[in-house]
Amino acid sequence: MNDDFYLPGLSHFANDNGWSGSRGLLCYEIEKPQEGRMRTVIWQGPFSRKYAQLEGEASFKVTAEGIDALRSWLLERAEAMNAHPPRTPEECRAYYEKISRGGD
User: CB under 8 Å to 86, separation ≥6 — which residues?
Assistant: First the structure.
């Protein structure tokens, strides 16, 4: 486990709380649990989730084991995403403009 990567404990999620954060280029949001599961989505910054191109999602049980699996999944995705150059401002702007127009 990577000790410098903080995620709240089980009680945080068991009390219907979400969480968001980042690790290098990786941005993530853990949605409020529903039906005992935490849906997590990832994207590359610099934009917030609303304006970013989603890069992946996964769902984990609201258990101590589920949080450990979630942590491992996020760390793996962060390592992969951070191994590549960030998107250029032009790429980010093109995607933002596309979704602002309602997609294509």
Answer: 25, 44, 45
CA distance 75 to 1: 9
Task: Provide the residue-wise pLDDT of the chain in tens; the chain has 104 residues.
Answer: 345 889 999 999 999 999 999 999 999 999 999 999 999 999 997 778 887 889 999 999 999 999 999 999 999 999 999 998 888 888 878 887 887 887 65
Q: Do residues 36 and 13 make contact, with C-beta atoms less than 8 angstroms apart?
A: no
- The alpha carbon of residue 26 and the mean position of all alpha carbons in its chain are separated, in whole angstroms, by 7
CA distance 38 to 62: 6
pTM: 0.84
Q: How many CB atoms lie within 10 A of CB 51?
A: 13
